[in-house]
Every structure is written in C-alpha cells, then in structure tokens.
Design goal:
31% helix, Jelly Rolls, three-stranded mixed beta sheet, alpha+beta, 14-stranded mixed beta sheet, 327 residues
Length: 327
C-alpha cells in the first residue's frame, strides 16, 4: 500500500525525497497522478534530485544490512508506529515489506553513488528502480542491467532479460541502451527492450527511439515512434505496429496474449515466472491461446489452461507442470 500523502502534521511534508522514493518504489504501479507529481517535484529544483539519490543510497545500505538484529529491531518499531509516515518508517517499511511485494532484485553498488551499478532480478521477480538522472527502469524477471552514468553521458547495457524505461528529457545527454549489437538512443519517453537470442525487440510507448548497429560505426538502422515495435532482421531492422498494452502487461504481474500458439505462451511464462511449464507434445504447442493470466502462480495458470483450452495438465516431481493435448 502506498503511504499517505505528506501533510503539515507529519514529517514527510519536510522530507519529500523519502516520501516520493517510497511511493515510486512500493511495488505497485504508480498512477498518472503519482508520476506527474513525482516528475514535477524532481524538475522543481536540482536539490530534489540529489535528495532522491541520497534515498537510493540509504535504501541500498538498509538492504545490505537487512539481516542485522539492530536493523530488524528498528524496522519492527517503525512499522508498529501509528500516525503519519515518517522518513524512517518510509525507508524501513519499504525495505521490510514492499521488497517482497515487488519481487525486488539485487543492486550491486561499485562506487559511492548509483552512477555505476548492476541491477539483477531472479526468476519470478520484477523491480522498479530509479536511475541517477531521475528516470526509472523496471526489470522483468531474470534480467541484468548495468548502469554507466557520467556528467557527459547516460548509458546502460541490458545484459539479459527485459527492461522498461521511463526516461526524463536531458537535451545534452540522450539515454543510450546497449542491447546485443544494437545501440538504442532516446531523448525522453517510455519504451521497452527485450533481449532475445535473435537480437533485441524494442517496443515504444511514448517518444521515439533510434536504432543503430553498435559494431558498425554506430550506423543508424532506423527509428521507432510511439506504438511501433522494432525487431532485429539479420543486419537490419523490421518495424511493425505494436500492441503496447499486451507487450508491457508483465509490469503488472500479468501475461496477456491474443491468439498466440501455446509454445510461445509457455516460453513467455517461463521467462517471467519462478514456476516452470513443459510442453509434452507438439500438438499442445500449436493450440491457440488468448487471455490475461497471472504469471506468479504456476498452479493457477496450469488450471486455467486445463479448464479453458481443453488441455491435459499435470504436476511433475520437480515442481514443473506438464501440458499435453487432450486425448
């Protein structure tokens, strides 16, 4: 649950950095009002961004020491307090509770600031993390993102998995995303990058993304506008319209598919969930599937397949679920 709005009778009114950090990283997807308010606050003064970064560092320090007895004691006391949401309650509450709800990953700091870091999520986990410039990234399960920020650049490398970026404008430093042998550049907006075996798959929700060949003198291959999808096609770029809602539904813990073969659905499910699905035969893989499913529960998903698509589903000793075409 999001904390209460800051008011003059609680100390979050004087510490909006802690308030906004908790609100934007609680594990639930922020609404339009939250995003608008957060960006207005970030852009209101340079000191706001610096205060937000200090919360990042505090968050990571708490995560590293989360098992220490003194930390557990303070967290317990903070969460039992009544009344307004204080800075200490916000940070300890986030570390102690919302991590589980969000399925947060691991952020390995290699310096005293978050400008160079590795963000990792495990199977079944997703994480929304603030970037050093106030932008945000949401990582799908089984993803790795390496940050490389400096005064003259904003750069990240997607080493595995899938990332959704919400990028703040910076006229002097467009965000560059390295994904395989592609270099993606965006001045501002929202877009998603999925690193597949055949190359990156890019979906643009807002703004524009330029795609270049990273190892060929940054040769530009094309551009993507809002509502478009670009996939690697040999040495080129294939552009098509995108179903943005379906492609990004994983951010809400959902797997949305529209008339896709079960083989593709199983591949997507296994990408996001800690549970595993196994196709028992080729016929089952050809069954066309449509629907919106939670990906955080293998049993529920398997039962939905069995009841709604006339498939035979059974648990296996290793905890996975086998799917076969019904006889």
């Amino acid at each position: 649950m999001f904390p209460a709005q800051p008011t003059h009778d609680n100390d979050d009114h004087d510490d909006l950095a802690a308030y906004w950090f908790t609100r934007m990283n609680s594990g639930a997807t922020p609404g339009l009002a939250d995003e608008t308010g957060f960006r207005a606050w970030i852009e209101a003064a340079p000191s706001n961004l610096e205060a937000y970064r200090q919360c990042q560092v505090a968050w990571r320090a708490l995560e590293i020491d989360a098992g220490a007895p003194e930390v557990l004691t303070l967290r317990s006391r903070a969460l039992k307090q009544e009344g307004g949401v204080t800075r200490r309650r916000a940070l300890f509450g986030l570390t102690g509770g919302a991590f589980a709800a969000a399925g947060a990953g691991v952020w390995v700091m290699s310096a005293s600031s978050p400008a160079r870091a590795l963000i990792v999520t495990e199977a079944g986990q997703r994480m929304t993390a603030p970037l050093p410039d106030g932008s945000e990234v949401t990582l799908a399960p089984l993803s790795r993102l390496r940050l490389d920020y400096a005064p003259d650049r904003r750069s990240v490398r997607l080493e595995a998995g899938q990332a959704y970026f919400s990028v703040l404008a910076d006229a002097d430093r467009p965000l560059t995303v390295i994904a395989g042998d592609r270099l993606l550049t965006a001045g501002a907006g929202r877009f998603q990058v999925t690193l597949l075996d055949r190359g990156p798959d890019v979906v643009v929700e807002e703004g524009a993304v330029t795609v270049a060949h990273r190892r060929d003198g940054a040769r530009i291959l094309g551009g993507l506008a809002a509502g478009q999808r670009g996939v690697q096609d040999g040495v080129g770029l294939r552009v098509a319209s995108a179903d943005v809602e379906s492609a990004t539904a994983w951010r809400l813990g959902r797997l949305v598919v529209r008339d896709r073969p079960l083989s593709e659905v199983v591949e997507a499910f296994n990408r996001y969930s800690s549970d595993r699905l196994v196709l028992g035969d080729e016929r089952a893989g050809k069954v066309r599937i449509s629907g919106s499913f939670r990906y955080d529960g293998g049993r529920e998903f398997a039962l939905a397949l069995a009841s709604g698509f006339d498939l035979a589903v059974a648990p296996r000793p290793d905890g996975s679920w086998r799917i076969d075409a019904a006889d």
